[in-house]
């Protein structure tokens, strides 16, 4: 039992340490991403989100906080998680390729000025790389939430149009934990810009 308890405590401390290490490094790019999101939303654009596994859950978590609410009451905001429609996902994977499950939806739904929030802890998942390619073809901006060295996802980012938020950890779990905190920071900053007058 003691070994199990020790292991839990080690995970809590490792998570806290990763977050503390990232605070100064990631705050400027998270703030920049929140500014782009608030500007896009005020311009009547929408945010599409995608990810696999735990990152699919993160994509949905974030879109629901825009569509419904985060901590403050405010008007509903337009966001679509591309991870939720099982008929669409299974038919694209079945008839085409799993790689295209998000890109094909972006070709249908994405419009100039919309943003794609693309989440991949490795930065190497082909479905996410195809999604980014499709968004760039649709003249959308991309916010990439990634980890490790950012993989090909970070390399695909265009210097002016896209932003990369990369958690410099090798652990998928630790990266995901910082991603969730990052998503809550984005929600908070969007609310502050839309309602609270923060610049
Ligand atoms: O949540 C976890 C691991 O913590 C897994 O479900 C994980 O998200 C999946 O293996 C994903 O397929 C990994 O994809 P990615 O983050 O490398 O793009
Ligand atoms: Zn997980």
From TrEMBL:
The gene is gmhA. Catalyzes the isomerization of sedoheptulose 7-phosphate in D-glycero-D-manno-heptose 7-phosphate. The reaction produces a racemic mixture of D-glycero-alpha-D-manno-heptose 7-phosphate and D-glycero-beta-D-manno-heptose 7-phosphate. Binds 1 zinc ion per subunit. It catalyses: 2 D-sedoheptulose 7-phosphate = D-glycero-alpha-D-manno-heptose 7-phosphate + D-glycero-beta-D-manno-heptose 7-phosphate. Its EC number is 5.3.1.28. PANTHER family: DNAA INITIATOR-ASSOCIATING PROTEIN DIAA (PTHR30390:SF6), SEDOHEPTULOSE 7-PHOSPHATE ISOMERASE / DNAA INITIATOR-ASSOCIATING FACTOR FOR REPLICATION INITIATION (PTHR30390). Substrate binds at residues 52-54, 65, 94-95, 120-122, 125, 176. Pfam families: SIS_2 (PF13580). The lineage of its organism: Bacteria, Pseudomonadati, Pseudomonadota, Acidithiobacillia, Acidithiobacillales. CDD domains: SIS_GmhA. It is found in: Cytoplasm. It comes from Thermithiobacillus plumbiphilus. PROSITE patterns: SIS. This is Phosphoheptose isomerase. InterPro entries: GmhA/DiaA, Phosphoheptose_Isoase, SIS_dom, SIS_dom_sf, SIS_GmhA/DiaA_subfam. Homotetramer. Belongs to the SIS family. GmhA subfamily. GO terms for molecular function: isomerase activity. Zn(2+) binds at residues 61, 65, 176, 184. Pathway: Carbohydrate biosynthesis; D-glycero-D-manno-heptose 7-phosphate biosynthesis; D-glycero-alpha-D-manno-heptose 7-phosphate and D-glycero-beta-D-manno-heptose 7-phosphate from sedoheptulose 7-phosphate: step 1/1. It comes from the Bacteria. Keywords: Carbohydrate metabolism, Cytoplasm, Isomerase, Metal-binding, Zinc. The keyword Cytoplasm applies.
């Amino acid at each position: 039992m003691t070994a199990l308890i020790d292991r839990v405590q080690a995970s809590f401390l490792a998570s806290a340490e990763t977050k503390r290490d990232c605070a100064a490094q990631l705050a400027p790019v998270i703030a920049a991403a929140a500014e782009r999101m608030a500007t896009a939303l005020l311009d009547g654009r929408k945010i599409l989100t995608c990810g696999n596994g735990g990152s699919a859950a993160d994509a949905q978590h974030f879109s629901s906080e825009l569509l419904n609410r985060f901590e403050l009451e405010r008007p509903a905001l337009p966001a679509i998680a591309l991870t939720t429609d099982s008929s669409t996902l299974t038919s694209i994977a079945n008839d085409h390729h799993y790689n295209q499950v998000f890109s094909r939806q972006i070709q249908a739904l994405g419009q100039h000025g919309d943003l794609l929030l693309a989440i991949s802890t490795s930065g190497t998942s082909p479905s996410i790389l195809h999604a980014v390619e499709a968004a760039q073809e649709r003249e959308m901006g991309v916010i990439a939430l990634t980890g490790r060295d950012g993989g090909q996802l970070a390399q695909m980012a265009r210097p002016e149009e896209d932003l990369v938020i990369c958690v410099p950890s090798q652990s998928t779990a630790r990266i995901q934990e910082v991603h969730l905190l990052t998503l809550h920071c984005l929600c908070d900053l969007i609310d502050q810009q839309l309602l609270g007058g923060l610049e």
